[in-house]
């Protein structure tokens, strides 16, 4: 049997979040001797059924694409581009953004929102210039695709406590199944965002194709 601390480690979540999920009846638990415990087998089965990843010390086997990662263009296209995403705080916009991620209905997107919010509490994902790249603290082992990036243009700028103090107007929500892919796409995004004209385009962007074509052009310079 697992304690709450051990269950939190397995899920890669803070103890407070796991306790909240227990109170909400989201997790399978057992009361033994007045203590809340978890069957590891039940917890793993519960996570797999909902496509919720488990934190492991070693990257899961078989997640890499043999032909290498897809292009940034494809990851952004797959994740979708959304406009007028409402919210007054990072927590509000992250919850709304998580609901927009195009994953199967079987996946509980509220858990993805929790993961994004918990990561944001550790340190701001606002990288400056009005841009943030929210992502979970750990890779999503059970993500049904290798990686995707959901782009969310906010209805109004939100203070993410970014390194340059500027409020964020666009989020690139990065979900990946392993660390290598996460770093690959983070590097490619960073390359695009170093260019002033790309950031300027983001501030004016009203059409998904405009963003995708700009990414295709920048990515061609890398390849």
General description of the model:
The protein is α/β, with parallel strands linked by helices and 223 residues long. It folds into two domains: 46 residues, no CATH class; 151 residues, 3-Layer(aba) Sandwich (Mannitol-specific EII, Chain A). Helix content is 44%, strand content 17%. The protein is built from nine helices and seven strands. The strands form two sheets. A five-stranded mixed beta sheet has the order 3-6-7-5-4. A two-stranded antiparallel sheet has the order 1-2. The radius of gyration is 18 Å and the shape is elongated.
Q: Structural class from helices and strands?
A: alpha/beta
Largest sheet features: 5 strands, mixed
Uncertain residue segments = 57-67
How much β-strand is present in the residues?
15-25%
| CATH superfamily descriptor of the largest domain | Mannitol-specific EII, Chain A
Helical content (DSSP H or I, runs of 4+): 40-55%
